[in-house]
Amino acid sequence: MLESTPFAAKAQDPLTKLANRALYLNTLETVVHSYNETKLRFGLFLINLENFKQLNKSTSYHFGDLVLLHVAERLQQHFGPIYELARVGGNEFAVLWPLLATGEDTTSPDLSIAATQLFNLIALPIKKSGYHCELGIKIGVCLLDPKLNAKQWLQGAEIALRHAQNDAENHYHVYYQHPTQ
User: Which residues are in the GGDEF domain (predicted)?
Assistant: First the structure.
């Protein structure tokens, strides 16, 4: 959680108090720059809450805000301060996930396990203010590549998310290519 400073107020999402997109890009840039020293692998998970606009319209914006807060709380409770979390869009959250494996092939099981954990965590029913909902999510994942800058890394996760949203069978998609290719 961010400190109470003028910068912190501008760098966090006003509703969830998670990092906002601008602060998250700075965090991603730091991770990219430190890769040459640490060789730590990360997957950037971009999570989209499915049918959120319909939820807002069919219930209330207040309930929609409560759902966003509840999802942020679930993420914070599950991951704690070790994982970098952010709300990067209206109904999009990001998780910077450390990976144990080093190659694309050996990382895939880690990514599948991580995506399933996120899906199960967020898919739990939410009951607030007399309303009840069960959320579906789609996840886009982009692996850390030292050739990418932070914006390209996030762009790769966004491309993967679009692929996941167009795939009725799978709830996540991994983007392995350089986003500018």
Answer: 40-177
The predicted-structure confidence for 24-61, as pLDDT tens digits, reads as follows 999 999 999 888 788 888 899 999 999 888 888 888 88
Find out whether 153 and 46 touch, Cβ atoms under 8 Å: no
Bridge partners, residue 46, by sequence? 94, 140
Please tell me the pTM assigned to this model: 0.86
34, HSE (Cβ side, Cα atoms, 13 Å): 10
Amino acid at 90: G
Spell out the domain ranges in the chain: 6-175
Question: What CATH architecture applies to the domain 6-175?
Answer: 2-Layer Sandwich (3.30)
How far is the C-alpha of 60 from the C-alpha of 129, rounded, in Å? 10
- Give 105-153 pLDDT, tens digit per residue: 445 667 888 888 899 888 878 887 788 888 889 999 999 888 889 999 9
3-state DSSP call for residue 69?
helix
Residue 102: helix, strand or coil by DSSP?
A: coil
